[in-house]
Please model this.
Amino acid sequence: MFGRDTASDLPLILFGGTFDPIHRAHLRAALAVSRALGDAPVHLLPNAVPPHRPQPLATGEQRLAMVRRACAGHKQLVADDWELRHSSGPSYTLATLKHYKRLIGARPLVFVVGADSFAGLHRWHRWREFPALCHLAVVPRPHSPPAPLSVQRAFPAAPAALLRRRPAGRRLMLRRPEMAVAATDIRRALQHDGADYHLTPAVLAHIRRLGLYNADTVHPTRHAHNEAP
Model:
């Protein structure tokens, strides 16, 4: 899975999250960052034990299966189980960044965060080590406050071309797409009517098949859309 792109001169992009469930806004963000960086590969990594938020309702295996279904058909996207396999405790981003940096060396490493996470980066475990390991790609989210100056200075804003030339330490601020979807709202919708238009048909079908999030399995698939993410 990973070896086929290690020789590339494109950045390697990491996008972590609970993905509980993965939805279209995740896919749009991943594809937008990929396009900005020359169609670079994006590894989507479900967290094992996220340290900064409530624990997922679906198991790691179930969330990985949903990520695999969401990535199908997008050659830039890779479902990656590294955090699930290597995290017996909290899934600290620092360990993930160090692992992939060892694998790719001087090749640029880019970590995707929402604007809300960027604003709170100073509360992450040993975040000051991040600039030596990766760039950031910051995806807009509604009503996100600005990041503290210490965080902004640690990752100076730069154009995509500069992120492709340097191994780490810069920040790409995307203007779109906006991550305006909340997984909490999706899970609530699934509980009430068994469908949510923010999910791809393959992910929704998998949720229904397993009865995840108490989704009603009797609703027909007419609720699912087939448009691109």
Summary: The beta strands are 12-17, 42-46, 77-79, 109-114, 135-139, 171-173.
